[in-house]
Specification:
Elements lengths: L2 E7 L4 E2 L4 E8 L2 E9 L20 E8 H7 L12 E8 L6 E7 L4 E3 L4
Parallel strand pairs: 1-7
Antiparallel strand pairs: 1-2, 3-4, 3-5, 5-6, 7-8
């Protein structure tokens, strides 16, 4: 299945529909933008996996989640500056024959992630 992501809004107890995400490939100190997308009603990439196993490569990747704009759009009053603006997650892919799922659980004040299944 390759690489996928899923974002859950823990403040409202729902998927983070509409959140903007940027996907990067990291080589050394250089981050190259692969694509930007908006999460669907289930809090996932509307096009499915970010990479399938055939196109996934060993290496380092980054997902950047636009948390501040998402919560502002939901009507949440945030301080200026907001505690969380964008949440960058850097992670490594060591085995291209495995599925890497990168979930993000997020509120305006905290986040957590893990390697999901």
């Amino acid at each position: 299945m390759g690489l996928s992501t899923h974002v859950l809004d823990t403040m409202h107890g729902c998927p983070a529909a509409g959140m903007q995400v940027a996907q990067y490939k990291i080589e050394g100190e250089q981050a190259t933008l692969v694509k930007r997308f908006q999460l669907n009603s289930d809090g996932r990439n509307p096009d499915g996996p970010l990479y399938d196993n055939a196109s996934l490569r060993v290496g380092t990747y980054r997902l950047v989640f636009d948390v501040q704009d998402y919560f502002k759009a939901k009507g949440v009053t945030l301080p200026e500056p907001a505690f969380l603006n964008r949440v960058p997650l850097d992670f490594g892919i060591a085995h291209t024959d495995q599925h890497y799922h990168v979930p993000l659980l997020v509120s305006p004040w905290s986040y957590s992630t893990y390697r999901g299944s």
